[in-house]
What we know:
two-stranded antiparallel ribbon, TIM Barrel, alpha/beta, 8-stranded parallel beta barrel
Amino acid sequence: MFKGIFVALITPFKAGGIDYQALAVLIERQLAAGVSGFCLLGTTAEPPALTDAEKKEILSFCKDKINGRAKIIVGVGANSTEHTLQNIKTASSINPDAYLVVTPYYNKPNLNGMIAHFTAVAKEAKKPLVLYHIPSRTGQRLSIDFLGKLIGAVPQIKAVKEADYDIARVVKASTLFDKQLTFMGGNDDLWPVLMGLNYPALISAAGNILAPAFVKMQKLFLEGKIQESMSVFKMAYPLIEGLFFEVNPTCVKYALSCLGLCEEDVRLPLGALQEETKQKIQQILANTPKELLI
């Protein structure tokens, strides 16, 4: 189920509202690039800045546009269990393939709290759960022991979107739990490493603009053409790095705006990029082979 490139789709804005025309174009470009799925309302979509009504509209719109041509994972996580359950109720209207649930941020629950949280989420979801492990945003890195006890207590957790930069921990987790979980990459700049660890899928923010590159990297890697895969990565790497010069998705949206695919607008508390960052991204884009871009 969790195989291939999943794009963590942005929410394009225009004049303060959601630009559905741009969203439709982006979806079609991603599908043409060969992505396997979409992650809707993930961090890259700026869900904290969306109203509940907007979230519902976005889900319905994307479901209709995708129209069964790719898998759909919906981000529902919050640092409140009740809020998470409400997000699931909203997302259930489109019958997604799975729910992406971040480990609660800021309050940093202990093991008993985390198990109780995910148990409640699993009961409401009645769908596979993808645990989103991103210590840089949540302030909590799950130890191997903690993760093992959590997935043992909540078997509905079928996958982990791993966005930890502690490579030793990533290797150990994927080695110990590969029979119980599907590991999905969450760091675009580590994709070659993660493919080497037999990660079958990537949920990618950079894929909003570099989906053809990621799809090609994986295809070549699975064909045993490791050097060719790395060659694609090396060509894409400057832009992969550049898309995170400032907090995601500000750089992704700016790069897409340079290609005329959407406005660069983000919602507060995110703000416009620094001019220096814009100039750097423009230069990198100009040097990136066009066939690697959507």
